[in-house]
Input
Amino acid sequence: MKAPSHPLPPGRFGLPIVGETLQFLLDPNFADKREKQYGSIYKTQILGRKTVFMSGSKANQFILSSHMDHFSWGKGWPNNFQELLGRSLFVQDGQEHQRNRKLLMPAFHGQALAKYLTTMEQIISQYLSKWEKQKYLTWFPEMKKMTFEIASVLLLGTSPGENIEVLSQWFAELTNGLFAIFPLRTGWSKYGKALAARDRLLEYIDQQIEERISNPGDDALGLMIQTRDENEGHLSKEEIKVQALLLLFAGHETTTSMLVSFCMALAQHRDILEKAKAEQKALNIDRDLTPEKLKQMTYLEQILKEVERLYPPVGGGFRGVVKPFVFNGYYVPEHWIVSYRINASHQDRNVFPNPEKFDPDRFSRQREEHKKTEYSLVGFGGGPRFCLGYGFAQMEMKIFASLLLRHYFWEILPDQNLTLDAIPTLHPRSGLKVKLVSSL
Ligand code: HEM
Output
C-alpha cells in the first residue's frame, strides 16, 4: 500500500514516549471513555507503542481471521512479555506457530482431558473443604491458589500440595515484571526479580522433564514429551520448558477470573442460582463426576457463556501490524500495534439486546444470540488461534461449579468494593469477600 489516501484513526498519543500508558494501566474505563469520544476505532500510545483499538464483531473477524496475515502475535506483545515468557506459542507466528500448536494440541483435547478430570476434582474438593472450615474468605486470591495448583500438577507435573507455595511465589514475581514500566535489570527491581524468578521456574521445569523422560505419564507435561508429528518431529526439552511456563501463565489467572465472576454473578441472581442447583440435582451425581455428566450440564454451559460475555477475563488481544491496512475508512501503518476489544464487542446491543443484563438464556437453543453474528462472542479469542486451553478451562470450571452448586451456599459480604479492575485479569477490587457454608 502506497501513500495513504485514508486518514489515520482519530485519537491522541498523549505524552512523548510514555504516551497514555499510566491511564491505560490505572483507569479501568480507559478504553470505554475513548471509544465514547472517538468511536469504535481510535489511536493512542501505550508502553511507547502507537496503538489502535478496534471493537465490534467485524473488527474481531478482520484481526482474528480474514486479515490475519496483516498481523503478528509476536510483535504484539511488549518486550517484557517476550523476554519473560520466552519463545513460546504466544510470540510465535506462521509455520513456527503452526508446528508448535500442533505438537501441543494432543495435551488439550479429547481423551487427554478426560484423564485430568480426577485430579481436578480432587484438588477442587480439597480447596472447597478448606474454605468451608474458614467460612469467611476473599475468593480471588484463594481461587488463584486453587487454579495454580491444578495448572502446576497437570502442566508441570508437580505432586499435589508439593512446592506449590514456592512455585506460586516465583510465579507472582514473574508476572509482576510483565507490566513493569521501567524494566531495570538490577536484582532489587521488579523486572530484575521477575527475570530471576523466570530462571528458577525454568530450572524447576527442566528437572521435572528430566525425571519424566523415561516414564512420561499421562498428564499434559507427559503428553508434551511424547507427542510426535507425522514426520516424527517433536518438541525439544528447551521448547517444552518455555511452552509449559507459558501454559501456566495463560491457564490459571484467566480461569481464576472467570470462576470468581461466576460466583459473584450467581450470588447476585438467586433465580439463576436456583435453576443451576436444580440442574445439578436432576443429574443425580452420587459419586465422582464423569465426562458424560459434565456434557449434560447444558444450563451451566449457558451460565458460563454469559459470564464469558459480561465478565471476559481478558479485555483484548494485541497484535503487531506487519502489513498496513484500511479498516472502516481509516489507515493503519506498519509497525503500529492493534488491539481487538473483547469486552466492548460483548456489549454490542445489536447482537446482545440489553447487554448489561446477566441473562444466561440468551445462549439457550431458542435464542443463541451469539450464533447470529460471527465473532461476536470472543472471550477465548477466535479463528485459527482460538484459545488452546478452552477444553481444559471448561472442564475445570464445570467441575468447580458442579461441586459448589451441589454442596455449598455462599453469600457476598457487605462493605466491599466490587468495582471491576482489568489488570492482570478482570476481578472485583476487594477480591470478593464471601461467607461459604455447606448445604448438606
Ligand atoms: C489464547 C482466553 C484458559 C492457553 C487465548 C486467547 C484468549 C484466551 C482471549 C486469545 C488471545 C488473543 O487473541 O490475543 C482464555 C480464558 C481462559 C483461558 C478466558 C479461562 C477462562 C486457558 C487455559 C490454557 C490456555 C486453561 C492452557 C492450559 C492458551 C494459549 C493461547 C490462548 C496457549 C494461545 C493460542 C495460540 O496462539 O495458538 N486464551 N484462556 N488458556 N490460551 Fe486461553
About this structure: The chain has one domain: 21-438.
